[in-house]
Amino acid sequence: MKVDTGINLDLHAIPDAVRTIEAQGYDGVRTAEMNHDPFFPLLLAAEHSEKLEIASSIAVAFARSPMNLANIGHDLNAYSKGRFTMGLGSQIKPHITKRFSMPWGGPAAQMRELILAMRAIWANWYDGEPLQFVGEHYQHTLMTPAFTPNDTEYGAPKVVLAAVGPKMTEVAGEVADGMIIHPFSTQAYIDSVTLPAIEAGLAKAGKTREGFELSYSCFVVTGRNEEEFAKSKVATQERIAFYGSTPAYKGVLDSIGMGELQGELNAMSKQGRWKEMGTLITDDMINAFGVMGEPQQIAPEMLQRYGGFVDRTSASFPVSNDEQRAAIIEALRVG
Amino acid sequence: MKVDGGVGLNLSTVGAQAAELEEMGYSGVMTAETAHDPFFPLLVAAQNTAKVQLMTSIAVAFARSPMTLANIGHDLNAFSKGRFVLGLGSQIKPHITKRFSMPWSSPAARMREYIMAMRAIWDCWHEQKPLEFTGEFYTHTLMTPFFTPTDTDYGAPKVFLAAVGPMMTEVAGEVADGVIAHAFTTEKYLRETTLPALERGFAKAGKSRDDFEISYPAFVVTGQSEEELREAEVATCKQIAFYGSTPAYRPVLESIGQGDMQDELNRMSKQGRWDEMGALVTPDILKEFAVIGEPETIPGQMKARYGDVVDRTSAAYANIPKDKRLAIIRELSS
Q1: Closest residue in B to A32 (Cα–Cα)
Q2: Is residue A309 part of a domain?
Q3: Closest residue of B to A72, CA-based?
Q4: Domains in chain B: boundaries
Q5: Which of A128, A211, B19, B134 has its CA at 20 to 30 Å from residue A270's CA atom?
Q6: Where are the beta strands (DSSP E) in B1-109?
Q7: pLDDT higher than 90, residue A300
Q8: Is residue A265 part of a domain?
Q9: pLDDT confidence of residue B318
Q10: A126: domain range?
Q11: What is the pTM of this model?
Q12: Does A67 contact chain B (CB < 8 Å)?
């Protein structure tokens, strides 16, 4: 299992951060799109590392034209010599329409088309295919030599898609090169919803699971001592409770027979009772959403439970001891 | 007069290139949006320089959401400690709709709203104003602390706008911090069309000319021998003929009483007679567009002709040796 870690978006801190991360043995770094451009840090990460894979995880797809994304993807992949993976997510309608002032269609169908549009653009650039992409959401029919990159040695980046529901998951299987499973996923949900939907998508495209990269960052509760462990547990409970309060994720709670909890958490969130919400998350639930134990138990447990289908993780390992953390990373990588 | 220089889009070489331009005394380094992202090279350039301004000239505004551009602008300005200038242009309809799959309509009105939308977003981030931008073309009404940058020391970048026609030029005067005039501009057009349009824009916004920069890349015909000069002249005439064949630029030719030439050039361009087209540009016409002479005479000519109007220029002086280029840059900048 490859192990990635997030980097924050402070551009000044990136060079030192990625050098350290590379020395620690991580396989890759990833950025999330929050209050900064998600691609700038990856350019600096590429410049200041040798081998690290770089990925957005995720960039907001519908905030951008597929042409822009195709260009950004090309440039980052060429500059990093093939180390870039474009991780995309849909965000939710109010953010697309009211924050980005961009169109929102049926998200799964629009995402499918956006990725196909990028692939059509790349096929035009790399293989000289005519650009004639006429979709319902996106149309790309004009390209001239002046706008065609010629540093095509590394071709297109990998495209991976973040998905929770079965429709988006199927789109990932069909048109993406991999999928990012949401941390708020249980083993039962992955088995009953995620994996079958990926298979359905792969089948549509006549692809096999081979070469399709699944990323899953389960929750990890651990610590080098009682105090650290307790802190990690409370933080995890609160995050699970936070996600659990979201109506769209009720299906995940249903997978472990806890669907009713969603209503309760949602009501409490509206009263701002965030701390209290965490106390509703039992040990059994934590174990359903991830692994909990002594530092040396984490990697074996993750490998046993997820090793069969997960290709990479960016789970965080909340142990303050560098050696203990390095041991977890190494054990996961060796598999 | 400040002098800006273009850098390429090659991310592996742009750092050294930008550092060299800074060393030579250029005030700004510029990227154009062609086959690559125009912002990445400026991020690399920022790491390798300390003083030069980092400018897009231009990035295609309508290819992007004002929000992503506001974010890019914020980040580049913060990282470069206030040295970023976001130079925008509209491109033309087919490129926006058929290349970028983005909406196009009334470009001047849309551009005005676009820049105002970015300013509303920056006001929200930098001055904690509520984000309530509801325009005809763009709507930005949602912002949460999670998506708000906190590194606000350097605030918003300057925004320049490329404009040729009077409507877009007026928009530049009203809502931008500078205008990027087209190289295909005669002195007459600059004085009789561009300046008055800018003034109308300033008046609308209650701004003064002092708060605004006019960037004009001027054609410069120079060389160290008769032969080099002649070569530069032929090349420049061809370029002028190429631009002159574009219907949208007819008013520029009209400024010197040569409107009819546009029809002729357009016809010839459709027949692919590019080499012949340059011959239509007579020495008199060339003079209207270009500063012509030996390298030593260029700064004096530029200052005499444009010193009262132009704040920054960006001619390449590509065919003269570095020491003479240095002298031109130094003299123009002083």
Answers
A1: B147
A2: yes
A3: B37
A4: 2-221+293-333
A5: B134
A6: 2-6, 28-31, 53-56, 59-60, 84-89
A7: yes
A8: no
A9: 77
A10: 2-221+295-334
A11: 0.95
A12: yes
